[in-house]
């Protein structure tokens, strides 16, 4: 449980026909927190997001957003959320500025504030020079940027991004990540992503969702530390005749195994690394350390 | 009232879209073409010679004539009216039984009156509630005018001995304008109702397009109810239709058409667009794609057109109050200058309001259903079952 939760998901279930998309999923998201949701395809990430945004209704359970229930105060909740779906799906014939104005009016942004807000957002997403171009002339990256501006047009306290960097080139993806990073702290953000590095880099906490349930949730470092030791030491040797028991005797060593001429040592701490390397003195080709990643956490949790 | 925002932007989008503007211009061109074609059609009907594409109107309207001299009877155009010799009592009886449209009584001493240059008083009996009466009135007037011209020419000729031209007794105009009058009203009513069916694609694009472009998800995430979304989109189309009908009326007036009770006619046509737009919204809300919506709407529109035209035509052929269920009947009556009692508006207005509200309610309910918007889409039977069990 998170104290001062901005979004509180309480045992929601949702089925589409015979397919159970969510199965008693519960999760709290704190105010000003950036929570990442990771999970395989069909895990229930998008369904969870759509329920929070009041696009779908759960079969059972409830979600409270800023204290409002999705069953009673849908309009209030919707006005608190800026939502960027996986595909920005914008109105093709609109010019960028007109599109933002349209959504500003729908969100009820006061008229005198609309133009300054549009200029500010176009500046933020580096698209001031394309303000009067039609959406159908934009690349996927530019559309995603306009999508972000659209999601922020009413300055919402909560922003939900569903796979914001999916299918983008590395440079544009990096740009989008920096927009999200800049929003951190001010807003409560939910980031749904397939990219573990993205979640690791941006999120305060990460929830691993699979088969409609939260498998694990916590800070990225905490989750990584749960997978196996803190560090994996990889040592390549010339002579394959190595006594692995000598390595196993160190206190910090959890597991040792050898594949080809590479010895992998899973460590609880880094303190004994020099001593372990000494065991292989004269037989060394190279030494590397490998930190566990969220990908390892994900594979470990999802299987 | 956020639906006005949707209406404003949808309408703005229509005006700024090249495709929509092209459709708009194309429709106006078709209207102009129809006026030209219709005028040719009328000209053909008026012509005594040459080919005609006009359908035969024999048996459409009839007149009984009591004319012992035969002077008038033999000059009435039998291609326009069925003419039968009869007496006063028998003719009035036939009119009351709806077997004839009118009765023309020509005085017995007409020949003497003409010779002595006395006025000849023709008496024409018609039923003023019968819309076909105008045919009889016009044909009798036309025949009387022809006779009058011929008698005047003969009289002037007799005063001037140098004028040896033969008095002309042949009828120059065969009275084609008279059936054209009724045709004119029917055609005019059809023309005015036509824009109602020309903007279905705009609404389909607006609602089904949200699914196909996947923009619907964002729209549902907006702080606006689905009912307002559907209403806003529908109103944009009604507004476009209202402008289109106004433009058509303007063009028809410029082209020389007489449109009586202009504002009532305009209001009725625009009002009729409400259920048409409602039904289109409901079909679009359920349809998976443009193609599906297009096919279903083609059939539904044929049904609506039939519902509008058949009572109108039935009213022309045989006056029936039940025909007032179609707003096209009312428009046709208004166009002909016939007085329409307030109670006559009731069936059509009730029909418009009930169908309009029902179709709009269905459209909103369908738009709100997750399974319709995001799938798996339920079948019609499942929807009907939900409707019956109040789970719709």
Notes on the protein architecture:
The complex is a heterodimer of chains A (303) and B (392). Chain A contains 11 helices and 14 strands. Chain A is an alpha/beta fold and 303 residues long. Chain A folds into 2 domains: 5-218, P-loop containing nucleotide triphosphate hydrolases (Rossmann fold), CATH 3.40.50; 226-302, Alpha-Beta Plaits, CATH 3.30.70.260. Chain A has a 6-stranded mixed β-sheet with strand order 6-7-8-3-9-10, with helices on both faces. In chain A, strands 2-1-4-5 form a 4-stranded antiparallel β-sheet, with helices on one face. In chain A, strands 12-13-11-14 form a 4-stranded antiparallel β-sheet. Chain B folds into 2 domains: 3-41 and 181-388, no CATH class; 62-173, abc type-2 transporter like fold, CATH 3.40.1710.10. Chain B is built from 15 helices and 4 strands. Chain B has helices at 3-16, 18-46, 88-96, 110-115, 133-159, 177-193, 200-212, 216-220, 226-254, 262-286, 290-317, 327-335, 342-368, 370-374, 380-388; strands at residues 62-66, 82-85, 102-105, 123-126. Chain B has a 4-stranded mixed β-sheet, with helices on both faces. Chain B is elongated and about 90 Å long.
């Amino acid at each position: 449980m998170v104290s001062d939760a901005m979004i509180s998901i309480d045992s929601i279930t949702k089925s589409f026909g015979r397919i159970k998309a969510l199965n008693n999923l519960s999760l709290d998201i704190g105010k000003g927190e950036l929570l990442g949701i990771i999970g395989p395809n069909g895990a229930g990430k998008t369904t969870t997001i759509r329920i929070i945004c009041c696009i779908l209704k759960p079969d059972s359970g409830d979600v409270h957003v800023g204290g409002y229930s999705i069953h009673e105060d849908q309009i209030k909740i919707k006005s608190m959320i800026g939502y960027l779906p996986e595909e920005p799906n914008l109105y093709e014939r609109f010019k960028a500025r007109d599109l933002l104005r349209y959504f500003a009016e729908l969100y009820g942004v006061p008229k005198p504030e609309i133009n300054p807000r549009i200029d500010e957002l176009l500046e933020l997403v580096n698209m001031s020079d394309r303000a009067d171009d039609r959406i159908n002339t934009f690349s996927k990256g530019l559309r995603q940027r306009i999508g972000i501006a659209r999601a922020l047009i009413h300055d919402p306290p909560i922003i939900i991004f569903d796979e914001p960097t999916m299918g983008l080139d590395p440079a544009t993806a990096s740009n989008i990540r920096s927009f999200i990073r800049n929003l951190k702290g001010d807003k409560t953000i939910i980031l749904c992503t397939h990219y573990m590095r993205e979640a690791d880099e941006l999120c305060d906490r990460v929830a691993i969702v699979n088969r409609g349930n939260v498998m694990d949730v916590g800070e990225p470092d905490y989750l990584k530390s749960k997978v196996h030791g803190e560090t994996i030491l990889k040592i390549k040797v010339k002579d394959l005749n190595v006594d692995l028991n000598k390595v196993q005797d160190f206190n910090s060593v959890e597991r040792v195994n050898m594949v080809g001429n590479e010895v992998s040592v899973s460590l609880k701490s880094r303190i004994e690394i020099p001593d372990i390397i000494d065991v292989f003195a004269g037989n060394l080709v190279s030494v590397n350390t490998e930190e566990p990643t969220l990908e390892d956490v994900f594979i470990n949790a999802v299987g | 009232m956020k639906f006005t925002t949707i209406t404003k932007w949808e309408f703005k989008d229509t005006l700024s879209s090249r495709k929509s503007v092209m459709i708009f211009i194309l429709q106006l061109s078709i209207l102009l073409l129809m006026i030209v074609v219709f005028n040719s059609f009328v000209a053909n009907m008026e012509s005594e010679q040459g080919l005609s594409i006009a359908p035969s109107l024999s048996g459409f309207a009839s007149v009984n004539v009591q004319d012992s001299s035969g002077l008038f009877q033999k000059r009435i155009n039998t291609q326009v009216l069925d003419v039968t010799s009869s007496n006063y009592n028998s003719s009035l009886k036939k009119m009351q039984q709806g077997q004839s449209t009118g009765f023309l009584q020509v005085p017995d001493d007409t020949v003497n009156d003409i010779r002595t240059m006395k006025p000849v008083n023709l008496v024409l009996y018609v039923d003023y509630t019968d819309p076909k009466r105008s045919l009889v009135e016009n044909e009798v007037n036309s025949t009387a005018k022809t006779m009058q011209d011929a008698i005047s020419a003969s009289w002037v000729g007799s005063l001037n001995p140098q004028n040896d031209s033969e008095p002309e007794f042949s009828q120059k105009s065969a009275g084609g304008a008279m059936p054209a009058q009724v045709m004119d009203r029917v055609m005019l009513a059809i023309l005015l109702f036509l824009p109602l069916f020309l903007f279905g694609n705009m609404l389909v694009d607006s609602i089904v397009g949200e699914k196909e472009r996947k923009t619907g998800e964002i729209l549902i995430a907006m702080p606006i109810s689905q009912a307002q979304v559907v209403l806003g989109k529908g109103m944009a189309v009604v507004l476009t239709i209202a402008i289109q009908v106004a433009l058509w009326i303007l063009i028809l007036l410029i082209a020389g058409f007489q449109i009586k009770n202009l504002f009532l006619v305009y209001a009725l046509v625009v009002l009729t667009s409400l259920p048409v737009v409602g039904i289109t919204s409901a079909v679009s809300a359920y349809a998976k794609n443009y193609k599906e919506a297009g096919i279903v709407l083609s059939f539904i529109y044929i049904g609506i057109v039939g519902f509008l035209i058949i009572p109108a035509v039935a009213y022309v052929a045989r006056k029936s109050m039940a025909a007032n269920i179609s707003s096209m009947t009312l428009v046709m009556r208004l166009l002909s200058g016939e007085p329409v009692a307030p109670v006559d508006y009731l069936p059509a207005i009730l029909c418009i309001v009930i169908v309009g509200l029902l179709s709009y309610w269905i459209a909103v309910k369908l738009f709100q259903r997750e399974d319709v918007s995001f799938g798996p889409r339920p079948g019609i039977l499942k929807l009907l079952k939900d409707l019956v069990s109040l789970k719709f």
